[in-house]
Amino acid sequence: MNIIGxxxxxxxxxxxxxxxxxxxxxxxxxxxxxxxxxxxIPRHAFRYCLExxxxxxxxxxxxAYYEDPRKKLARQVWSGLVDDTxxxxxxxxxxxxxxxxxxxxxxxxxxxxxxxxxxxxxxxxYFSGFRESAILTVDGVGEWATTTYGKGGDGRIELFEEVxxxxxxxxxxxxxxxxxxxxxxxxxxxxMGLAPYGQPLYADxxxxxxxxxxxxxxxxxxxxFSYVSxxxxxxxxxxxxxxxxPRKESEEIGQFHSDVARSMQVVLEEVLLRKSKxxxxxxxxxxxxxxxGVALNCVANGRILREGPFKKLFVQPAANDAGGALGAAxxxxxxxxxxxxxxxxxxHVYLGPAxxxxxxxxxxxxxxxSYKDHRGRTGELxxxxxxxxxxxxxxxxxxxxxxxxxxxxGARSILADPRNPAMRDRINAMxxxxxxxxxxxxxxVSHMAAAHFELDHPSPFMLETCQVSSALDLPAITHVDRSAxxxxxxxxxxxxxxxxxxAFNRVTGCPILLNTSFNIKGEPIxxxxxxxxxxxxxxDIDCLVIGxxxxxxxxxxxxxxxxxxxxxxxxxxxxRDVYTFM
Length: 582
Ligand SMILES: [Fe+2]
Prior knowledge:
Layout lengths: L1 E6 L6 E6 L2 E7 L1 H4 L9 H11 L8 E4 L3 H10 L17 H8 L7 E3 L2 H10 L7 E6 L6 E9 L2 E9 L4 H11 L8 H7 L8 H5 L2 E3 L5 E3 L15 H7 L12 H29 L3 E5 L6 H10 L4 E4 L5 H17 L19 H9 L6 E2 L4 H13 L4 E4 L13 E5 L6 H10 L8 E5 L19 E3 L15 E3 L1 E3 L5 H14 L3 E6 L11 H10 L4 E4 L2 E4 L6 H9 L15
Parallel strand pairs: 1-4, 4-5, 6-11, 11-12, 14-21, 16-19
Antiparallel strand pairs: 1-2, 2-3, 6-7, 7-8, 9-10, 13-22, 14-15, 15-20, 16-20, 17-18, 21-22
Helix pairs in contact: 5-12, 6-10, 10-11, 14-16
Bound molecules: fe (ii) ion.
C-alpha cells in the first residue's frame, strides 16, 4: 500500500511517501525549486518521493491532501475573500488541489481529503511512539479550526473540542510579528528570539487582546484585528492600544519592540500552560502530542514540559503545514486499509534526498576547485573536520539524506566551535546575514547532554529550550537569558554527525557544536551538492565538507567563481536531479 501525502497552496508545500505504513520519504518543495516556503503543488517533492520508493505513479494507491478545500471555502466566503466581481480568486478555488493533482502530478487514482487539524493531530500522534496521548494542535487557521483538543488511543484520534476562526492564538502571535515589522509566517521565530531582550511591560495590554473562556475556549478581541479580510493583521485600534505605529522593516529594533515581543511570548506561554492543564484533566493522559505552527515555539514547549502536568511531550518536527502531509497520509492509510497506522516513534527526519559519492565527485571534477578526497577513510575525514573546527573554521556540512522540517539537524548544517565569543557575529557576517539578536543552537552528544544543559531527556529535533549549565563557556550558543535550543544527537539516528561530535570532543574536550541551517538569508536550506557548492562559493564559509570530500577556501581562489556565480550558475551543467536513495 503506497500512499502519498501532500500539503500545498498556502505555505511550506511538501510531499511524503508512506509504504505499508512506513514513512519512506518526505521533503518540502522549496528545497527543490529554491523558492522559500514555495506554496505550489509539490511536483518536485512528489517526483523525489516516487524515486525514493522506486515507484511509478501507477504504484500509488492513494493521494491524501492535508485539508478539505470545500470546508475551507465556507470560511473564505465568510471572510469576504472575493474579488470586485464577487467571485473567488483563482488561487482560492476549492477544486484547485484535485485539479492540479490530476493535471500536474498526473494521478488518476483516489484522492482523500483530510481535515487540516486532523492532519496536524495525526502527524504528531502516529509518529510519537505513545500508545495513548493527549493531542493539542495550534496554528493560524485550517478550514475553520485554529486550535483543537483531542486524545489518541487504540490507533484512533478523537478531536473533542476546537476554537474556530477568527479566534486564533497563531494569528495573535502573527499579528504581533507583523506589528514588530517581521514577515507573517516566517518572522515568528524572530519575535521568540527577541523576547529575552525585553521585559513583559505590555503583557497586560496583550491580555486585553484575548478573552479566555472555560475549558479550551478563548476569543480574540476582534476590533483590534483586521486579518479576517486579509487587508492587514492589525487595526488602527491595535496601534492606538500600544501607543506607537507599527515598526517599519528598515527601522531599528528598539527596547519597545523587545518588550512587546517578551510580552507576547509570556502571554502565549500562560495561555498554552492553562490550556494544556485543561487538556490533561480532560484526557487523564501523561503524554502530550503537539503540532501546528505554534508548536514550533520551542520556548513555550520547554515551559509546557517543565511546568505543565504532562510527563512526556512529542512535537512533530515539521509541526508547520509541511508536516500536515504526514498526518494526511496516516489518516488515509486507515481509510484505505481499514487498519490504523501502527504507532511508532519517529526515529529521525533524514527523509530527503541523498547523493552518492560518485555524483559528488563528478560535480567537483567538473569545476576547477582544489579538494581533498577521503573516500574509504571516513575516520580521517572526521578527524580532519574536527581539527578545522577546533582551529575556529566555519564548516559547511553536507552528509546523507536531507532533513524534513525547518531545522537543520546535522545533514545540511553550518557547524562551528560554540566556545568562541566572536563566532555568532562571524557566522552572521559571512553567511547568515540575519538579525544579531537571534541565537544559534547547539548540537550535543546525547549521553553527555545532561552535563552541559538542564535536560533529562532526549531532544533530537531541537524543539524545546532549556538552560545552559555547562562548566564550559559557550557564548556562541547561549542566549541572553542563558537558554539554548538543544539538539541531542545519538549514533543510530545520525552516525556521521555523532562521530564528528565525538571527534571534536577528543580534540577540544567539548562534545558540543554550534549547528545552524546551511543556507543564505532568504533562501531555503541547501538540498543538492550544487546548492551546497553555490552557498559555499557565494559566502565566506571557510570549508565545505561534502560527502567524502573537503574543500578549503584557503586552497582556492574563489573570487572569480563568485563573480561567475553572480551572473550565471557555475554548476548549470550539472543535472539537478542526481539524488540517490540510501
Ligand atoms: Fe496548519
